[in-house]
Amino acid sequence: MNQILIEAKDLKMYFPIKKGVIKRTAGYIKAVDGISLKVYEGESLGIVGESGSGKSTLGRMLMSLQNPTDGDVYFHGERISHLSNRKVRPYRRDMQMVFQDPYASLNPRMSIGELLEEPLLVHKTVKTKAERKQKAEDLLEKVGLSKQSYNKYPHEFSGGQRQRIGIARALSTNPRLIVGDEPVSALDVSIQSQVLNLMKDLQEEFKLTYIFIAHDLSVVKHISDRVAVMYLGKIVEIARKEDLYEAPLHPYTQALISAVPSTDVTIQKEKIALKGELPSPANPPRGCAFHTRCPHVHDRCRTEQPQLVEYKEDHMVACHLYTEPEVRMD
Ligand code: SF4
Q1: Distance 251 CA to ligand 1 centre (A)
Q2: Is residue 83 in contact with ligand 1, taking CB distance under 6 Å?
Q3: Per-residue pLDDT averaged across 276-290, rounded?
Q4: Which residue out of 250, 272, 304, 319 has the highest number of ligand 1 atoms within 8 Å of its CB and is therefore the one to mutate?
């Protein structure tokens, strides 16, 4: 097993709900509610969940772009949460983010050369103007764009090309970790696989670690070694990709997997329909937060919150079906 690169310990992010003229705190939105996880050097961890599951907030806390309400993040054994901006800056060079919207994430008034050189100036990694230009041109070629792109502006590129520029910008500081927050969701399906393939190749070449956030299990399947499934601020299942896709344990994961289109036309999968909408994180159901939509709900689920426990090696699940031998499904 490789070394742990980044670790979250009991991470929480509670946003206060303010009400009335005096803005008193009337409750909390528990966007992330007690998440612990480890990401190993060189691996790709996919984090999947519906909109409102807390996955992007988790990503921002892991990157130290947002301080948690409680809990800690460690990067290579060093605590990076709750630090001042000045103290966290040296770690930022090692952690970069690729955002969902390649249209919004690039300043339209900056040339591609300026966009790629900006992080080099901020982190003072390359000294001279000539070296910065050389590095920017090399990065453009690494992501499959021509050196001539250096003098152009974002509006001159397609969505897929802009996301390549976003990836080149993320690579410019020679990071060890890249967090992709829905990096291909805004792209056409045909372009998605090109960008995913590029990211996979770059991972190998630059020995990168990825955290790949998506709302869709079919997107992370290609790129992840392990996948964590989130529901209302908690991880409900985490496993190696093969185990999660072939033998999902949690009823929520089973429903998500059943919705992934199969590439094998001979396989007829029965789609598991989920009842209702995702409940509000401001008022999550008691007991198991999934119980209002779960096809296997039983009495215990309505009162007792299931803990994330190891079901077998490298496969953890939070569901009472796997802690009550008399109702186990296998
Ligand atoms: Fe369903 Fe109960 Fe398991 Fe929650 S704990 S997922 S409600 S069976």
Answers
A1: 7
A2: no
A3: 91
A4: 319
> Does 88 have pLDDT greater than 80?
yes
Q: How many CB atoms lie within 10 A of CB 149?
A: 23
pTM equals: 0.91
Structure-model confidence comparison of residues 134 and 269, the more confident one: 134
Q: What is the pLDDT of residues 214-272, one digit of tens each?
A: 998 988 998 999 999 999 999 999 999 999 999 999 999 999 998 887 665 555 667 88
Whether ligand 1 lies within 6 angstroms of the CB of 187 is answered as no
User: Residue 248: which residues within 8 A CB-CB, separation 6 or more?
Assistant: 237, 254, 256, 257
Half-sphere exposure of 99 (CA within 13 A, CB side): 9
CATH architecture of 4-94+175-327: 3-Layer(aba) Sandwich (3.40)
Q: Ligand 1 centre from 253 Cα, in Å?
A: 11
Is residue 293 lining ligand 1, measured as CB closer than 6 Å? Answer: no
Q: How far apart are CA 209 and CA 318, in angstroms?
A: 26
Contact assessment for residue 302 and residue 270, using Cβ atoms and an 8 Å cutoff: no
User: Predicted confidence band at 141 (pLDDT cuts at 50, 70, 90)?
Assistant: very high
Q: Which helix (H) or strand (E) is 12 found in, with range?
A: strand 4-19
Work out the number of other CB atoms within 10 angstroms of the CB of residue 126: 19
Contacts of 166 by beta carbon, 8 Å cutoff, 6+ apart: 98, 99, 102, 105, 106, 183
Asked whether the beta carbons of 287 and 307 are under 8 A apart, the reply is no
Residue 131 has pLDDT above 60, yes or no: yes
Determine how many CB atoms are found less than 10 A away from the CB of residue 297: 17
Q: 30-57 burial by CB neighbour count: b if 16+ within 10 A, else e?
A: bbbbbbebbbbbbbbbbbbbbebbbbbb
